[in-house]
Amino acid sequence: MESEIHMTGPVCLIENTNGRLMTNPEALKILSAITQPVVVVAIVGLYRTGKSYLMNKLAGKKKGFSLGSTVQSHTKGIWMWCVSHPKKPDHILVLLDTEGLGDVEKGDNQNDSWIFALAVLLSSTFVYNSMGTINQQAMDQLHYVTELTNRIRSKSSPDENDYEGEDSADFVSFFPDFVWTLRDFSLDLEANGQPITADEYLEYSLKLKQVTSQKDKNFNLPRLCIRKFFPKKKCFVFDRPVHRKKLTQLEKLHDEDLDPDFVQQVADFCSYIFTNSKTKTLSGGIKVNGPRLESLVLTYVSAISSGDLPCMENAVLALAQIENSAAVQKAIAHYDQQMGQKVQLPTETLQELLDLHRASEREAIEVFIRSSFKDVDHLFQKELAAQLDKKRDDFCEQNRKASSDRCSALLQDIFSPLEEEVKAGIYSKPGGYRLFIQKLQDLKTKYHEEPRKGIQAEEILQTYLKSKESMTDAILQTDQTLTEKEKEIEAERVKAESAQVSANMVEEMQIKHQQMMEEKEKGYQEHVKQLTEKMERERAELMEEQERTLTSKLQEQTRLLKERCQGESTQLQNEIQKLQKTLRKKTKRYGFHKLKI
Predict the structure, then answer these.
(1) What's the CA gap between 36 and 29, in Å, rounded?
(2) Range with the lowest mean pLDDT among 123-132, 161-170, 298-307, 537-546?
(3) CA angle at residue 50 from 49 to 54, to 5 degrees?
(4) Fewest 10 Å CB contacts: which of 180, 262, 435, 537?
(5) What is the DSSP string of 31-51?
(6) What does CATH list as the number for 323-543?
(7) Which of 9-18, 46-55, 153-162, 396-405 is predicted least confidently?
(8) End-to-end CA gap in the chain
């Protein structure tokens, strides 16, 4: 059953108190109750740039995230608002509004860097909000992106050959889509006299310079990081909504009070986010729901608080530990439910019980396979197999006991009248032995005709008869109608019959043992079969993910090479033009231009 979200407003998810980041239990409790996949949109930017207004619009509300109206930053830490996704049924839209970067009151930008990194790690769409145009000042203010390799690790044990300990391809596999929103944008969108789109303006602004100095390297660094880490980029420009004096009342104003172009631009932005923002997904195609997002928040904040770097691989493994353990319990609960509904003890045969076990076991493994991920060395599946084996053995023991109890009760009901007759001496007379044997056979037939005695039926009967052998022999010996020779023959017959019954019981025990061994092998093969199928699916997903990552990296390298070639070509053309100009001057100076050839 899907959970319903009734958040009337945002709550603080990660508190920033005196420079220390801490999670808020109230917000984590909300996340833990969200069973649906989540689309996480985080917004960051300098303080007092209108981030909260856009987030309120995404929430479909005029008020919620604090807008503030002064030069002080209103949002502290990271605030969360969970709402039903307006365009994706059975999805929850999680909006994260971050405290303004560069707040003069903080003095130290250490926390800004962590807030920026957490927003990147937790989101599936990352919105960077700034004022005005994309100029060098705007790029300088986005220096946090250049620090990401120093703030985040993708692997717990990075490859020694990775640049600065990390390869950008690893980041691309789990970094969010990038959206740059430019507020109070006043330029005409054109280049070389031709109109361009906001996306083309962003790409143009991210072009690199030919490196000839440290200044060029500094110019290129943030642009290079954005291009490498965020392969999917989008840009939106917004006109100023109202006159500056009315900005303090923005959340009270209606759309008709705002600039029509601004209203349309906000609508376009919201539509894009609703339509294109993806479900938060981890490496291996793992869709994130509320509890998984909760686990990520706890893992990342704990790492930062302890002085470590947040590591994506460690976060996924920690999440896997929690979820795989829960998956085992979920699978066992399903097995118990199915067996409880299907099994009626005692079963007539062992195979009947084993067939029910195998069907329930297969479903339980399916439940585990669906719910688990990154089960390193298959430890949790091995644990599940051990628990299912114990469950099977427990059911077999319960079945044996239920059969024993049922048969013992039947024997008491059926044979107690015979025992009373023996005590009364009814068979202690000439011809009494034959009467006793006939009555015994009749009662055995009646016993065999009783239904649902279970697998212990014959063993319990033979154990009972063996306990009454002395009584039978006493009746035989006191029957005066039988000669000594007849008594010997009858005793031998009874002895042979008892030996045959014992042999049959041994054979049946061997058959049961063989059935148990075959069942164990079938259970093992079922685990292997479903695990193999899952590994094939995961391998295909991993190959697709790696292909997307490598394709993205190759495309970016191709663009860089193309720009470099274009830059070198332009530089070469400039050098040729300089040479031509110099040649013309020298030709004119020496009068060579008057010569006719």
Answers:
(1) 15
(2) 161-170
(3) 140
(4) 537
(5) HHT--SBEEEEEEEEBTTSSH
(6) 1.20.1000.10
(7) 153-162
(8) 93
Q: Is the pLDDT of residue 78 over 90?
A: yes
Q: What is the pLDDT of residues 279-310, one digit of tens each?
A: 999 877 889 999 999 999 999 999 999 888 88
pLDDT at position 162 is 47
Q: How far apart are CA 314 and CA 175, in angstroms?
A: 16
Cβ 491 vs Cβ 327: under 8 Å: no
Residue 99: closest CA among 144, 60, 57: 144
Determine how many CB atoms are found less than 10 A away from the CB of residue 313: 18
Other Cβ atoms closer than 10 A to 24: 18
Structure tokens at 183: 């507020």
Q: Are the CB atoms for 85 and 10 separated by under 8 Å?
A: no
Structural tokens at position 287 = 């869709």
Residue with tokens 């909760």: 294
This prediction has a pTM of: 0.74
Q: Scan for tokens 């840009």, then name that residue.
A: 235
Which of the residue ranges 62-76, 119-133, 174-188, 470-484 would you say has the lowest mean pLDDT? 62-76
Cα dihedral 417, 418, 423, 424 sign: positive
In contact, 236 and 179? CB cutoff 8 Å: yes
d(C-alpha 204, C-alpha 198), whole Å: 10
Annotate 155-215 with DSSP letters as a single string: -SS--TTSGGG--HHHHHTTPPEEEEEEES--S--EETTEE--HHHHHHHHTPPPP--SHH
Domain pair 11-153+173-305 / 323-543, same fold? no
In the predicted structure, residue 586 carries a pLDDT above the cut 70 = no
Of the CATH numbers 3.30.1240.10, 3.40.50.10540, 3.40.50.300, 3.55.50.30, which one belongs to the domain with range 11-153+173-305? 3.40.50.300
pLDDT tens digits, 241-271: 876 666 666 666 777 888 899 999 999 999 9
Classified as helix, coil or strand, 441 is helix
The percentage of residues in the chain with a pLDDT greater than 70, rounded to a whole number, is 85
CA 160 to mean position of chain CA atoms: 29
Q: Where do the structural domains in the chain lie, given as residue ranges?
A: 11-153+173-305, 323-543
Q: Please give the distance of CA 122 from its chain centroid, rounded to a whole number.
A: 14
Query: Which tokens in the block code for residue 2?
Result: 């899907």
Closest Cα to residue 49, out of 108, 102, 121, 112? 102
Place of tokens 């699978």: 331
C-alpha distances in Å from residue 83, one per residue of 38, 69, 90, 252: 10, 26, 11, 22
The Cα–Cα gap between 81 and 97 comes to 8
- The DSSP output letter for 289 is B
